[in-house]
Design goal:
One of its GO terms (cellular component) is nucleolus. With 376 residues, this protein is α+β, with helices and mostly antiparallel strands. It is 28% helix and 27% strand. The protein has a 4-stranded mixed beta sheet with strand order 1-2-5-4, with helices on one face. Helix 3 runs parallel beside helix 4. The protein is globular.
Length: 376
């Protein structure tokens, strides 16, 4: 059995558990909010542990009485047809990120139905992963069978949304080589309005197009106006994604919503906490359009929220050199690189280009083989 790892604190809990599952290394995490008034694991973190338990067979999860110490001994990823209900405190995006990392290495292709809020203030939305992450995963896996559908949209905290995710399994991952960013070919997006005035979605589209059409004529943003019962929370927002001339896997995606206007930035963001911003649809649309332009300029082949995904597949690839061009590494990505060193004793080579501020990351793959996949 692989040696156990030990960490302290609640930060990067999902990263640590995902890498423990892939590397089959037990992990103990202590001092989880030990000094806070409400110590221990939060409800949404316990909910994530239940998701891991559904995805795997033979996992052992032990939590002490106060919830401040967690021991996780990973089992094998089995996948299959599953259902999971997200905790109301976090959106479905909180669960999608680790799912996208684990799904290709399971025993059976995953067909999962996730219910809960599709959009929330603390996590990338389900539409973000649908527009930006699925094309990237298709490229990394070399399979077009990856699919993410938003069946019903909803916002935190009351939920009511539904997402369908399916992913094939792979035996091995090919080396990743993504250096050519290309030029922006087109911009697509989706504006949604849930239990709010139907005209809000059109106001979001008009204000975003007012910014983007100055740079590119090929801009199309659809709308989704959703009347819902009283039990569902109200909200509105917009998601924008750019596609490159190189291919749809080279994309940048941003989003803005009425929920995010008074909240801290998501954990992947490079942005510092800002004073409360206006929640007017016109202001949200304009800010989101400007954010997309900034993301395109500074983010290399993938945007700042998806940096860790290609870095993981680079490590899992055959024993050959993989290389990718990224923007400035976020704190979330830097910690991911440290965790890869802890779990796999793997060190990435990071070179910064002083001219454009981009970063080139190179690594030799581990030659990971999916032993869970049944042989034909």
């Amino acid at each position: 059995m692989a040696s156990s790892l030990r960490f302290e604190g609640c930060n990067y809990l999902r990263q640590r558990l995902v890498l423990a599952t892939l590397s089959q290394r037990p992990v103990t995490i202590s001092q989880i909010r030990a000094d806070e008034e409400a110590p221990g694991l939060k409800d949404y973190e316990a909910n994530f542990l239940r998701l891991l338990d559904k995805l795997t067979n033979g996992s052992k999860i032990e939590v002490n009485v106060t919830g401040t110490c967690l021991h996780y001994q990973p089992g094998f990823i089995v996948g299959g047809v599953l259902e999971h209900e997200a905790n109301p405190q976090r959106s479905i995006g909180y669960y999608l990120e680790p799912l996208l990392m684990l799904a290709p290495f399971s025993k059976h292709p995953i067909r999962m139905k996730l219910t809960g809020a599709t959009h929330g203030p603390d996590d990338p939305s389900a539409d973000y992963y649908r527009l930006a992450c699925v094309p990237l995963l298709v490229k990394l896996l070399g399979s077009k069978e990856v699919e993410l559908k938003v069946i019903k949209r909803s916002v935190c905290p009351n939920g009511g949304g539904e997402v369908s995710f399916s992913c094939p399994i792979v035996r091995k991952v090919s080396p990743v080589w993504m250096e050519d960013v290309g030029k922006v070919k087109r911009i697509r997006g989706m504006a949604y309005s849930i239990k709010a005035n139907a005209g809000i979605a059109n106001r979001l589209v008009s204000s975003a197009r007012g910014v983007l059409n100055k740079y590119l004529p090929d801009v199309y943003i659809s709308t989704d106006v959703i009347p819902r019962p009283k039990s569902v929370s109200s909200g509105y927002g917009i998601v924008l994604v750019s596609s490159s001339t190189v291919g749809p896997h080279i994309s940048h995606c941003v989003e803005g919503s009425s929920m995010m206007s008074s909240q801290r930035p998501p954990p992947h963001s490079l942005t510092e906490s800002q004073p409360q911003e206006s929640a007017l649809p016109e202001d949200i649309g304009q800010r989101t359009g400007m954010k997309l332009i900034e993301e395109i300029v500074r983010s290399g082949c993938v945007d700042s929220g998806l940096q860790s995904l290609p870095l993981l597949y680079m490590a899992m690839s055959d024993r050959d050199v993989s290389k990718i061009k990224l923007g400035a590494l976020t704190p979330y990505t830097v910690q991911f690189l440290r965790h890869m060193r802890d779990y796999y004793n793997l060190v990435y080579k990071v070179e910064e280009n002083e001219e454009d501020g981009m970063v080139t990351v190179t690594v030799v793959g581990l030659g990971y083989t999916n032993i869970n996949k049944p042989s034909k």
